[in-house]
Amino acid sequence: MTKFSLRFDKREIEHWASQYSYSKEALVVDTIAPRIRATGCLTKSDFLSLCDWKTSRSKRRCEENSEEFIRSVTQIALSTPNEQLRIEVLTLLHGVGWPTASVILHFGHSDPYPILDVRALWSLSVDASTVTYDFKFWQAYTVQCREIAHGCHVSMRVLDRALWQYSNKNQHGLKASRA
Question: Whole-model pTM?
């Protein structure tokens, strides 16, 4: 079982989150996320924007998905009470692995979901190259992030920004992208 441990004092979460800056953030947070929550699914345009926000490397594969398939898959993910189905159904979409699926849940679901990211994992003392992304790992990661956010009285978005930014400033050898 993977052990998660913050590399920084939990009282610094808001500090690190306030240092976070990403040019595509406003479009996703202010426009796309509210639209997903209102409609209960993603359009192809919003899907492609979210995928690009996470990583532009998968753009061509993501474009292979039809509008109907994207709407159907995301509607299932955002409406099912089954946690495993919620995350795994999203990986049926071309170009979507666990990290991008986590972005869809993070911005589209009413429950708090963390974003699965090598930077966030590093900030939780986990080397992403040593873990297998599967439901057991995802569930443990989600539970841990929810406990941290709840215990520190911050939103999951604030925690995600803090985890990413701490790594961005302290982990050497990674490019400064959302990937």
Answer: 0.93
